[in-house]
Each structure stands twice: as C-alpha cells, then as structure tokens.
Write a structure and sequence with these properties.
Largest sheet: 6 strands, parallel
Number of helices: 7
Number of domains: 1
Bound molecules: 6-phosphogluconic acid
Number of strands: 9
Strand order of the largest sheet: 1-9-8-5-2-3
Strand content: 15-25%
CATH topology: Rossmann fold
Order of helices and strands: EHEHEEHHEEEHEHEH
Radius of gyration: 17 Å
CATH architecture: 3-Layer(aba) Sandwich
C-alpha cells in the first residue's frame, strides 16, 4: 500500500485552525458512525488542541453524536489525572466534562500507576480488548489527532528516544532524556494504522521545524515518520507556522481556505 500524499491545509489564524479541525472531526465522526456505528478518536496532548476541544464543547457545532464517540489518548504524561501536566485533565476540563459523552466511552491512560511500563501495558491491553485484536494486529483509529513539538516530536515519540524503533508494541513507556521522565505513548505502528491522522500545528515557533519535517526528507524527524499506510494524513497549519514552507508544498491542490 502506498502512503497517501499529505494534505497540507493552511488557514489564517489559530481560531480558523480550530474551526477547520472541528469540521474535519465531525466529518470523520459522521463517516465512521455511518460505516460502523461508532467513532474512535485518539486525542493529542500539549496546548494546541485545547482550542479545538473548547470549540467542540461550546455547543456552536451542531449534531455531534457524543454517545457514539470513543475517546483515547495518543500519549500521556506519567502523572495522575488531576495533575496540571495531564493530557486527560486538559481534555476533560475543556471538553469531556461539558458534553454528553458516556463515562464508559472515555479510555484514559491510568498514568497515576507508579510503574510507567505497567501503565503502558495496561493501556495496550485496554486497546486490544476494545478493538478485539488478535496477536500481531494493530488497532485502526478512525482519527488520530497529533501535535508537533519544536524539536519535531509527536505524541511522545521524541528525537533519539528508543520508542522510535518500536515496531510491535501498541503502547510503550518512552524515556524522554531531555525531560528526564517517562511518557506513555502510541507507537508508529498504531499511528500509521489510523484511517486518518490530523496534525494541528500553529504559531511561529513551529515554522522552522515544520519546514524540516515537510520539506526535508532526510530530516528523519519523528513527526515525519507518521505516514498512514492506508489512510489520510492531514497537516492543518496556521499561517504563522507555515511561513518557512516553500511554494511546492503549499501549492498542494487539497489546500483549503
Ligand atoms: C504532549 C503531546 C505532544 C504535543 C507537542 C506539541 O503530550 O505534549 O502529545 O506531542 O502535541 O508537544 O505541543 P503544543 O501543542 O503544546 O505545542
């Protein structure tokens, strides 16, 4: 299977980016629910997605079928769910606590577990059960939301980390040397098995690294290695993040508003 070409979409502001991301989120949800009655989404962490989560929970986007959406996380910090660093906590405060999603549809990483590897293995088992996977099979999330750090990392797959080479596990505890912490993260096989991966990248501090990821095939940066083998890859960018991109990348016919 050849990897689909990335769909590069550049919008003017971060607000436009959240609006476009919400439209894509609902479109993916409706498509999945029409096909098999539910929508599985892996949320990203960090700060960028908070604007999307807030918009989705605002009530201004009609007909979101919350009861048919199943939430997972593509990565989590090794902290309790009420910790300011927790990706679950951010998503819960910005969205999940404000909408009619059944509690049993929310699958957070139990990152309060002292042993990060145990937390990763437990989450892996949760995913295996939910998707009824046979040994060696990978889950196919309908949508995986991702962000990108200024070093080119995505999820918690950081440059130089051992997790970059993981080819069989679904979820691992990945040691992040620069922060001297473990993080629990999806591996590339899971991300690249998704039906759709959507990166949300905004702000001028991402411009240089984004040029490397999207226009320098030799960069080998973690975000560049996310290429769904049989799915869509969308890079949703605001203009500030896209300033270092050259014409050939941004002339992609799929480019929207
Ligand atoms: C995390 C994320 C991480 C994030 C990038 C971008 O747990 O931090 O999963 O991969 O997406 O670091 O973060 P910002 O959106 O805050 O720039």
């Amino acid at each position: 299977m050849i990897n689909a070409q990335p769909e590069i979409r550049i919008v003017n502001t971060a607000t436009d980016l959240f609006q476009a991301a919400a439209v894509e989120f609902v479109a993916c949800a409706n498509q999945a629910i029409a096909a098999w009655g539910k929508f599985t989404v892996a949320l990203s962490g960090g700060s960028t997605p908070e604007g999307l989560f807030t918009l989705l929970a605002s009530g201004s986007i009609p007909n979101i079928p919350w009861d048919k959406i199943f939430f997972f996380w593509s990565d989590e910090r090794h902290v309790p769910p009420d910790d300011p660093e927790s990706n679950y906590r951010m998503a819960n405060e910005a969205m999940l606590s404000k909408v009619a999603v059944p509690a049993e549809n929310v699958f957070r990483v139990r990152a309060e577990e002292k042993d990060a590897d145990a937390a990763a293995r437990e989450y892996e088992q949760t995913i295996r059960m939910f998707f009824a996977l046979r040994p060696g099979e990978f889950p196919r999330f309908d949508l995986a939301l991702l962000g990108m750090g200024p070093d080119g990392h995505t999820a918690s797959l950081f440059p130089g980390s051992t997790g970059l080479e993981e080819a069989s596990r679904l979820v691992i505890a990945n040691w992040v040397e620069k922060f001297k912490i473990y993080r629990i993260t999806f591996t590339y096989p899971v991300l690249n098995h998704s039906a759709c991966v959507m990166f949300l990248v905004c702000g001028p501090d991402k411009a240089t690294i984004l040029h490397e990821v999207l226009e320098n095939p030799q960069s080998g940066l973690p975000s560049q290695r996310v290429r769904p083998t049989d799915g869509r890859l969308i890079w949703l960018l605001d203009r500030a993040a896209a300033t270092a991109l050259t014409q050939q990348v941004t002339s992609n016919p799929v480019r929207a508003s």
